Structures are given as structure tokens and as C-alpha cells.
Amino acid sequence: MFDALERCKSDPYRRAFAAVTETGDLDASPATLAAEHCETELEATRVSAAAKRVIERVAMTHPTGVLTNGAGHQQRAKLERHGLEAVVDAVIVSGDVGMRKPDRRIFDRARRALPADDYVYVGDSYEEDIVGARDAGFRTVYVVEDGGKGAATDAADAVVSSVDDLLEPDLLPEPIRRPFELPKS
Length: 185
What we know:
The protein is mostly helical. It is built from nine helices and five strands.
């Protein structure tokens, strides 16, 4: 399954379970196993209240999108489950476009989907998110639980230990603070 996801192949879950059923003695069809796996994966996803507030806050005043690796239908189902699909303006999923982060072309596609003067990308994968976004000309915020101690962070414009930190924009460097600020009334 991970190979199919990495290669942006269509229907990676069914493909994976087709291979499993060929080698095993399973009664269920690949389609049934894939559907069950996808539902289990959806049930396991969590979006913190802080992450949801950050997305909602940014979306009040700035074009906002999600750029993610994975199967399009599954990633969109996750956003829908957590009520985020209605908040963001664009969703770019590697499985839909045939390329994965950190490939610069997927960031260019995001740029075309969300025209803006400046781009700030928040991510938790250094190579895929931060290096990829930085190479594509985005400003970057690296979310790393230990605050980046011992981790490579030089491509990040800011390092935070939690998405919660984005609710305190004064803690961020000036060039990337603006999207996270509360709208002026």
C-alpha cells in the first residue's frame, strides 16, 4: 500500500489488499478489506482543537489550503470528518495530481490553486514539508514536538513545538506572523 501511495497509483488501498488476498487465505474481497481499512484509518485520525482554530483563524483573512501526500479520496474524507473541507479554499493531494511532496511541482500546483502575494507552509515532516516548501519559495513553520532540539531545522523560518503555538503569533518571527494574527475588527 505504501508503495502504491508513494508512486501515486490509483486506488492504492484496493491494490494492496488485492496483493494480500492473492497470498493469503482471506474470505473478504480486496474492495471490502480496503473499505474497512479506510474506515479504521478515518476513525483513528485526530485534529486538535488548536489546529482547527489555527486553520479557521488563517482562513478568515487569507486564502488557505491543504497540501498533503496520500490517496485523494481518503485525505478528503479526513478533512470532511473533521469539518475542515468547508474551511479551506483548496485541497491538493498527491494521489490526485501524480506527484508527492517534496516535489516542487506539487507546491507550484498549490500556488496556482491559491493565488497570493506570499505563502506560509506549516508542516511536521522536515524533508517533505519544510525542505520542499522552502525550495518552492514558501516561508515555513516546522512543527516538531521537541522544539527542534537535535533535529535539522535550518530550512524552517520558524520552529514551534506544537500547533498551539501558532495561536500566539507574537512568538513567531515578523515575516510569518501576519497570517496567524486575529483579524482586526
